[in-house]
UniProtKB/TrEMBL annotation:
<dbReference type="Pfam" id="PF01966">
    <property type="entry name" value="HD"/>
</dbReference>
<dbReference type="InterPro" id="IPR006674">
    <property type="entry name" value="HD_domain"/>
</dbReference>
<dbReference type="InterPro" id="IPR003607">
    <property type="entry name" value="HD/PDEase_dom"/>
</dbReference>
<protein>
    <submittedName>
        <fullName>HD domain-containing protein</fullName>
    </submittedName>
</protein>
<feature type="domain" description="HD">
    <location>
        <begin position="30"/>
        <end position="117"/>
    </location>
</feature>
Amino acid sequence: MTIADIKVPDSVLAKEATELVRDTADELIFHHSRRVYLFGALQGNRRGLSYDAELLYMGAMFHDLGLTEKHRTSTRRFEIDGAEDAKEFLLARGVTEDAARVVWEAIALHTTPEIPTYMAPEIALVTAGVELDVLGIGYDEIADEQRAAVVAAHPRPDFKRRILQAFNDGIAHRPDTTFGNIKADVLARYTEGYVRPNFVDVITESRWPE
């Protein structure tokens, strides 16, 4: 399958990953994850980057699995849950440790601005795909017809409201994991009683006397 001139990987590994995400996540996360791959690949082509499409696909497809019901009792950051799921999946299918590590880092860092840009192309492009689909960063860098083709294949009805709700649902039970990252903004808006930790207070109120 080709969407917006981007070929979607169709290896056995890619098909199994697609099936796993279909079975584990809801339609919102599935379509979002596919758009992340497509937008990441489009940005990679635009930037002239050489990337492994299959590894980029793995990072994109697994990047939000930490928000799913499977991890509703987890106390880790949701990014790490998704990264660990991907690593386990890949290693069980004979993918090398080095390649699995690239996917792990792509997922673990996808909510950390700027740093992924200086890492392996697959890591940078998972973040680029997320930023375009969720935040609109790079929206005008992609041709209108390419954007339209991606959304036609993977629609985003009421996406802004629904993805924010999905973020909240996936992290509300582990609010401490949002300290120092952008997901604190989600809980501050949608979870009653959430108090955002303050980095300065953490330092000044630590057990050190001075």
